[in-house]
Design brief:
Low-confidence stretches: 138-147
Strand order of the largest sheet: 6-7-8-5-1-4-3-2-9
CATH architecture: Roll
Helix content: 10-25%
Largest sheet: 9 strands, mixed
Number of helices: 3
CATH class: Alpha Beta
Mean pLDDT: 92
Length: about 150
């Protein structure tokens, strides 16, 4: 069992990041957060904040075939839930040793310079979970650029 610090964000798959952000902000009092192109994941993301620590992440494909397939099959909607952990490599090693199926066995660079890794939904009741941790200061580089 790994220790979770908090829910970092809930991600919603959308076809158009900016239009979706504008639509949600016209309904809810959400503050805009980070907005970037994540080259490593071939996505465009925007974070929206309602207060507190957790955020909504709007993710749109920018060449990401898996996300395009997700949207074609299911339409826009809940994509994943992200838990923040202190030691991402350690958490992944612990999960792997426990037989939990992982999509990512090693952390990779994600939005906001965080290190991220996904668990396979077959291990979590059909829900896609992401784990994230702030990148070490020496390794922090932008995952993408804000268009």
């Amino acid at each position: 069992m790994i220790t979770v610090k908090r829910i970092d964000h809930v991600a919603i798959a959308v076809a158009d990041r900016d239009a979706s952000a504008a639509a949600l902000r016209s309904i809810f009092a959400l503050a805009p957060g980070a907005r970037e192109h994540v080259a490593a994941q071939m996505t465009d993301v925007a974070f929206l904040h309602a207060g507190g620590d957790a955020a909504l992440e709007l993710i749109a494909p920018a060449g990401n075939a898996a996300l395009e397939k997700f949207l074609a099959r299911r339409g826009p909607g809940l994509h994943h839930i992200c838990f923040e952990v202190d030691d991402l490599p350690g958490a992944l090693a612990q999960l792997k040793a426990a037989g939990v199926r992982l999509i990512d066995e090693q952390p990779r660079l994600g939005a906001r310079g965080h290190l991220v890794a996904f668990l396979h939904p077959s291990a979590t009741g059909g829900v896609l979970f992401e784990l994230c941790a702030a990148a070490p200061a020496a390794a922090t580089t932008p995952a993408g650029t804000a268009p």
